[in-house]
Write a structure and sequence with these properties.
This protein is mainly α. The protein has two domains: 96 residues, no CATH class; 226 residues, MetI-like fold (Orthogonal Bundle). Helices cover 75% and strands 4% of the residues. It contains 14 helices and four strands. A two-stranded antiparallel sheet has the order 1-2. The protein has a two-stranded antiparallel sheet with strand order 3-4. It starts with a helix and ends with a helix.
Amino acid sequence: MLNYILRRLGAGLLLLAVVTAVTFWIFFVLPKWAGVTPRGMAAMYVGKAPTPEALDATVERLNLDQPVVVQFFNFVKELFFGAQYEFGRETIECAAPCLGYSFSTNSPVLEQLLSRLPVTMSLALGAAVIWLIGGVAVGVLSAVKKGSLFDRLAMGTALVGVSLPIYFTGLLALAFIVHSWDLLEVPRYVPMTEDPAGWFSAMLLPWVTLAFLHAAQYARQTRAGMLEVLGEDYIRTARAKGLSERKVIFKHALRPTLTPIVTIFGLDVGLVLGGAVLTEKVFSLKGIGAYAIDAILGKDLPVVIGVTLLGAVFIVICNLLVDLLYPLVDPRVRVAG
């Protein structure tokens, strides 16, 4: 088991190194191949309508006129050891791990990301609990009651949930649930430590809206997996031995069905933690996704790079946790490890 954990940890670190190299290649090497000059690269760091003096200063400050190897070395060094940026007589410190410095807002990118992280984490984790429990439960019931009215209604609703985009269901929910029927307050982020009840009521609508799409996918996949497993020989053997239907479903049929569910759950949570862009914009939540959109529109490249790297870290961490959960879901993994 220890060897299994160490292998997965090493694979995660290797993947982060590859993602870092690919991110550098996309944002620094690819533009050069496309003919972008160092001044053109600098324009993506200083925001809209930069002055020639600001462009020249940025080129020198970020070594954009240096060879690619030197730039990559500085890129990695900043991640681990931080960076210093000179503004005339003023020196700006970007402490490690430095994900870059936004010259548009004059602040380290990591500092801004951490200030918005609680919003995104509240949205992602709350919605994840809803879509995992709701999707799996509906999928199991649909498989057990195959062909029933519940099965048809559940799968029909799931098809609608998969088909409708979040910006449509979110705006629809705002129009009716908040403004027309006045059932919930306008979504806003309230720190859970300050007002748990206010935090829950304000985030409930974004949770349900975000979870609706994912829960529909989980319900359909759980149903398909359960129907396949329920047709296996060992399920018929368990029933022939006189085991209760509950034990057959939850002990023998559900566990192998959960293996692919756990896999996609890790990917989905990692992606949402990297920024639920549409949900945050629809409900005006100032999370990482909304921050990334504002940076793209404002041509603030350091923020875009920082969000990319942070999103990769979340995905790797979530997949590592999924790998560690596999032995609990499937004993065969424990034996192999």
